[in-house]
Give the backbone structure.
Amino acid sequence: MPRAKGTGKGPTERFNIRLDEDTAGFYRTKANEHGISISEFLRQTLVQGVIAENVRDIEQRLRRLLEEIRIGGPGGWKVEIPDDLLLSVFTAENMLTSIVEVRDVQTLYDAQDKAKEKLKRLKGG
């Protein structure tokens, strides 16, 4: 399969990295297996890593919040988590997983921006 040329996303900036021969050969082989240039393969791999890191951060924050709720807030009061909230959290988790699978970091950024806007409106800001 011939390699695709460029991403067609407009102006780009060049980054130079150094890899040992074995690592460079590994990435070159993987790019060839996918039928894309080494640059495109590395771009996709970097984007996937950024998305995965964001998903991990969100999961960690949710776990901490859920644990705080389970333990109880100030004064030891306990809160039952509404099913609608849990459903929203699980839906968001699955959507983020889908984004990671298609390697579309812009979709992740758009989702984060919309979530921040909604939270701001909800809090009257």
Remarks:
- DSSP finds four helices and no strands in the chain.
